[in-house]
Design goal:
heterodimer; A: 335 residues; alpha/beta; Rossmann fold; Alpha-Beta Plaits; 6-stranded mixed beta sheet; 28% strand; globular; B: 279 residues; mainly alpha; 82% helix; elongated
């Protein structure tokens, strides 16, 4: 066991650095070598039972980080421990203690059936025959694979292959599971099925999930904490609420009202605020729209004024700060 | 370690078997290829000597046996096995790199050695069976079945079995280089022809110039090929069957060990670089 062998945190990374040196190919012989810093001092700690999201644009370093933590890549410097094992010095122990689903559908043999794939990967992982057979049966039932599991993978749809890859990562009943974009190319029903299962794994079975995704809503829905990566660095880390609270953004407020005596012209005076637009809605109501950074203070005052002047409030919409806003602010530099 | 290795090796053998069944046409091709390949020099020799009897007499004067068709069939089979073994590992690794499945295998086993050993074992077993089938087909065609149904054929099979360990050990080494060197495939194309010349596919190695003959004995397939012919056709062993077998076993262990070391080093170097999936 490594330095963090006694820790209860399944994943610990300290100052990880990984560089690549791709060369640009010209038509003939002249190659130019570049240096890409895929991970630039990444440190994090992930607790047991936590669903930890890795978000970031393409090339941010999410997959590289997952590959370092799953021993597929050796970092240039820094240290990382998974389930107490050093990812550089004890790769086989790390691998025996985790489940991994890599991006894409090509991590399985296309000339085998789904069941043959699950059996092959379960056996080379070292699972005993009886346990493996039961586990496969359980997975087949749970994910409704009966209709295609005995067909060759080359006949599957993209979604079916991704589902099979996901199931493969569950075979060993590992306590820590790495999922690299698990819902990519899935239709909404399959994606929902996988999300429900991830929730079950973390909330009920207390397993640790490290999830990379490009889907902000998915991260918001599933993750207890999120690290936002950009150019190999963690630019923000926290719960979805903390991240959303970390940026200041004007809320858009839309209120639909109707005037008992049709006095819409006077509504601007009633509201008494600058930057307000009033439009007639299709259903005969009036729509008031305004921007504010203090919704909590503004709404009660506005309601009081409207009701006092005889307006009936039908509908109120307040825009929320989303992870996408956080992403845009911190990664793209947008507002 | 064995507790982890054995299920992995057995699963890999099963995987290769299932893959073979999914491409059934290849089985027939693999059986017929050595027979067709051997037929080229058989027909050429018979034509040049103006008939089978004269061809047998000239061949016996130079090589020590009249059964030139059996001699050439064994050579063609061995060359085919050497080629299969050389390309098997390299192609398998490249195919799995390209498809991305190599990472999934590594993530399940923690190393690539056991799957490759399983794949090699399956290849060696397959070669043994192919040899029997292909020799029977060839012998029916050229009327030399009596050689196949003699006890000497079992000795020949034993020598092949020992030789195949060396051949697969050697290809294990080459395959490990393929994982590391992108250019290794083009080298393989040259090597397979060079090895074909050195191992004596269509002639005894003793006919080669001394320097080339000396180098050829460092190849794991040369002694095996020579001794299979010696066992079946009463031509010359290099020393005798026991010393030759001992040399082959030593060569096998050496090549396997070297392959293992190179594979481990390649694996680590690749993980330090861009990762197993890059090719």
């Amino acid at each position: 066991m490594g330095l963090y062998g006694s820790t209860t945190e399944p994943v610990v990374a300290e100052n990880l650095v990984k560089t690549f040196h791709p060369s640009s190919k010209s038509l003939l012989f002249k190659n130019k070598t570049m240096t890409v810093r895929a991970l630039d001092g990444v440190s994090l700690r992930i607790g047991k039972g936590e669903c930890f999201g890795l978000l970031g644009p393409n090339g941010a370093g999410k997959t590289t980080l997952v590959k370092v933590l799953t021993t597929l890549l050796i970092p240039d410097s820094g240290r990382a421990f998974v389930n107490g094992y050093d990812v550089v010095k004890e790769p086989e122990k790390v691998l025996r203690s985790i489940g991994v689903m890599l991006t894409g559908e090509r991590t399985i043999y296309w000339k085998l059936t789904g069941r043959e794939n699950l059996t092959f990967f379960g056996k080379i992982h070292g699972l005993p025959d009886d346990r493996l057979r039961l586990k496969i049966e359980q997975i087949v039932k749970e994910f409704g694979l009966q209709s295609f599991v005995d067909r060759m993978v080359e006949t599957y749809s993209s979604g079916q292959r991704v589902i099979l890859s996901f199931c493969k990562s569950l075979l060993a009943d590992a306590q820590t599971i790495f999922l690299d974009e698990p819902t990519i190319s899935l239709d909404p029903s399959y994606a929902a099925q996988i999300r429900d299962h991830i929730k079950h794994l973390t909330k009920v079975e207390r397993r640790t999930i490290i999830l990379t995704t490009q889907l902000m809503q998915e991260a918001d829905l599933l993750c207890d904490r999120i690290a936002l990566l950009n150019r190999g660095k963690i630019v923000a880390m926290g719960t979805p609420a903390e991240l959303k609270g970390s940026i200041k953004k004007e809320h858009v407020v839309r209120i639909k009202v109707s005037a008992k005596d049709g006095r819409s012209a006077s509504i601007m005076n009633v509201v008494g605020l600058p930057n307000v637009s009033v439009t007639d809605a299709e259903d005969g109501c009036i729509q008031i729209e305004l921007s504010t950074s203090s919704v909590e203070e503004l709404l009660p005052i506005l309601f009081e004024r409207l009701v006092a002047k005889g307006f009936r409030v039908h509908h109120v919409y307040v825009s929320e700060v989303t992870l996408e806003d956080v992403f845009n602010k911190l990664v793209s530099g947008g507002a | 370690m064995l507790r982890r290795a054995i299920p992995c090796i057995v699963s890999e053998i099963r995987l290769e078997y299932v893959h073979m069944l999914r491409y059934k046409e290849w089985i027939l091709a693999a059986l017929l290829y050595p027979v067709i390949f051997a037929s080229l020099p058989i027909f050429l020799g018979t034509w040049i000597a103006s008939g089978a009897e004269e061809a047998a007499r000239i061949f016996a004067e130079n090589v020590g046996t009249e059964a030139y068709s059996v001699f050439l069939l064994i050579g063609a089979n061995m060359w085919f096995f050497m080629m299969t073994a050389l390309w098997d590992f390299g192609l398998k690794l490249r195919r799995e790199q390209a498809s991305g499945v190599i990472e999934a295998v590594y993530l399940s086993t923690g190393n690539l050695t056991w799957p490759l050993l399983g794949s090699g074992l399956f290849g060696a077993l397959q070669c043994l069976l192919r040899f029997v089938a292909s020799m029977i087909i060839g012998s029916i065609l050229y009327g030399t079945l009596r050689y196949i149904f003699s006890p000497r054929f079992l000795v020949c099979l034993f020598i092949l079995a020992v030789g195949l360990v060396g051949i697969y050990g050697f290809s294990f080494l080459i395959g490990s280089l393929v994982l590391r060197l992108k250019e290794a495939f083009s080298l393989l194309v040259i090597f397979q022809m060079l090895f074909g010349i050195l191992m004596g596919v269509f002639y005894p190695v003793s006919l080669l110039p001394y320097g080339l003959a000396f180098v050829s004995y460092f190849l794991p397939m040369t002694i095996a090929l020579n001794d299979m012919r010696a066992a079946l056709l009463s031509t010359q062993y290099v020393y005798n069957i026991f010393i030759d077998s001992a040399i082959m076993v030593c060569q096998s262990l050496l090549y396997l060990l070297a392959g293992f070391v190179v594979l481990k080093r390649s694996e680590r170097k690749i993980r330090k670089g861009v990762g197993l999936a890059s090719f």
